Amino acid sequence: MSIRFGIIGFGFMGHEHLSMLQEFDGIDVVAICDNAPGLLDDVPDGIKKYVDANDLVKDPDVDVVLIVANNNQHLKLVKAAAEAKKDIICEKPLALSAADLEEMEKVVKENGVKFTVHQQRRFDPDFRTIKQVFDGGSLGDIYTVQTKLYGFNGNMHDWHVYPEQGGGMLYDWGVHLIDQMLWMIPGKIKSVFADVRNVINENVDDYFKIIMRFESGITAEVELGTYFLKDPNAENKWFERHWFMGGNKGTAYVDGFDPIGKKCTTSQLLTNVGGQRTMTAAGPTRSFGPPPEGRIVVEPIEAAKTNHRMYFENYVKAYRGEEEFLVQIPQVKRVLAVMDAARESARTMKSVDFE
Are strands 87-91 and 115-118 parallel, antiparallel or unpaired? Predict the structure, then answer.
């Protein structure tokens, strides 16, 4: 029997969800709601149209409510859907505060409904490619993981420019980048240090750098900027999307959303340096001179064959009890806590103790 979806919010992402869900065996979209009636003009025939979310959540034909509304509406819509005994998928960021998330958890538990978050970027090929390297252990003991996303346009669109609606890049992309990092690196985070800025946007953040120090000794760095300019004719993908990982047996990088990655190891690792100075053609060092031929071994990394459709493949199986939901609410709560710590660190210009 198909799972019957109702979508609340039919802007860009609402349309994206409809396009994807229409391809699924086992899912039927039966209702769509938006409080701007003009956005409903292209709803396909056979799908009910609502302008009031309360009417959609009360529709007996809807099993799952997919919330794709502005961030500041998530709390009231989660509560309305839960109280109507509907299972829920909510777009990220799930909540704008820890208090909001606690209220959501309470009403979901009271009504016994299924509840998860659309963190589909756990299936990004670039992320899964670098995660394969991390999980494989070929770089030895990892000490640094860096993820960077740069854009040039600077400006955000629609309601994302309004702080009261949950705008800004930390809520828009930071939630994904932090989630990827925390899902990959196990263990507790000891501290968070961050710089969060409004570079060219007056009211919402458009740049952040977050440094997380893990109990394991790994330092994770997440950086995003919407106003970094580059040569438009440059061919490398580093500027588009960049991962870097360093361990005591090698390093790796993955560039681009359609990723190209390589792993670098050495044929001879100098583990002990004597007290006597060694003079080379590059000066008295071996660290920064050009390597001898054949010293660095470079291997391509096979790109992961993942895509965002896999999020809903997991959802259908988990809904039927065949596996666990990929995105668990405690994981979402931890990401929100890191974001709160990042804002506090940026405000005080001090590191924040964590966990």
Answer: parallel
300 preceded by cis ω (within 30°)? Answer: no
Q: What residue has token string 């961050």?
A: 194
Name the DSSP letter for residue 289: S
Cα–Cα distance measured from residue 276 to residue 146, given in angstroms and rounded to the nearest whole number? 35
- Amino acid identity of residue 160, one-letter, is H
Sequence-distant (6+) residues with CB within 8 A of 192 are 210, 211, 212, 213, 338, 341, 342, 345, 351, 352, 354
340 phi/psi in degrees, rounded to 5: -65, -45
Looking up tokens 């005591």 gives: 248
DSSP state of 171: I
Sign of the alpha-carbon dihedral angle for 251, 185, 317, 102: negative
Q: Report the alpha-carbon distance of residue 149 to residue 170 in Å, rounded.
A: 12
How many CB atoms are closer than 10 A to CB 4?
16
* Calpha distance 5→27 (Å, rounded): 7
DSSP secondary structure code for residue 150 in this structure? E
d(CA 250, CA 248): 6
Instruction: Tell me if 5 sits within 8 A of 64, measured CB to CB.
Output: yes
pLDDT band at 338 (very low <50, low <70, confident <90, very high): very high
Digit-coded pLDDT (tens) for 290-332: 777 888 899 999 999 999 999 999 999 999 999 999 999 999 9
Q: What is the pLDDT of residue 277?
A: 60
Cβ-proximal residues to 45 (8 Å cutoff; 6+ apart), any chain? none
Q: What is the pLDDT of residues 4-48, one digit of tens each?
A: 999 999 999 999 999 999 999 899 999 999 999 999 999 999 999
DSSP class per residue in 236-298: -STTTEEEEEEETTEEEEEETTTTEEEEEEESS------SS---BTTBS-SSSSPPPTTSEEE
Q: What is the pLDDT of residues 156-205, one digit of tens each?
A: 778 888 889 999 999 999 999 999 999 999 999 999 999 999 999 989 99
